[in-house]
Design a protein that fits this description.
117 residues; mainly alpha; two-stranded antiparallel ribbon; 5 helices; 10% strand; elongated
């Protein structure tokens, strides 16, 4: 059903969904009509669900903050704090997510919430 040519097209569309069939044709060395037909096939199969835009919220004057509730080993947190880093590497379902935390809050959390430090 899906072959390496389809995968190449998908990789290009993941890089830039605005690539034209002509641009994809040049990069994959496939005829334009073949690229067009393969993209339509991928859409009909539901492999390509939609085309989206990535917005730079900072340029719109909006920053994103998220409050995440998670369980974390306080020894790990203290160790990271003592190393001078504000990044935690958290594993979520086989994927590593980098979580930045406010270093100024760590001593408060360790002392007042967990009673250590």
């Amino acid at each position: 059903m899906i072959d390496n040519k389809d995968l190449k097209i998908l990789e290009l569309l993941k890089l830039n969904a605005r690539f034209t069939t002509k641009q994809i044709s040049k990069k994959t060395l496939l005829p334009i009509t073949t690229v067009h037909n393969r993209i339509k096939k991928l859409e009909n199969l539901g492999v390509i669900k939609n085309y989206s835009v990535v917005i730079d919220h900072k340029k719109l004057g909006k920053s994103i903050s998220a409050y995440i509730l998670m369980n974390i080993n306080y020894v790990y947190l203290k160790e990271k704090y003592n190393r001078g880093t504000n990044k935690l590497f958290v594993h979520v379902r086989g994927t590593t997510v980098v979580v930045e935390h406010d270093r100024k809050r760590v001593p408060y959390l360790l002392k007042n919430i967990w009673g250590i430090y």
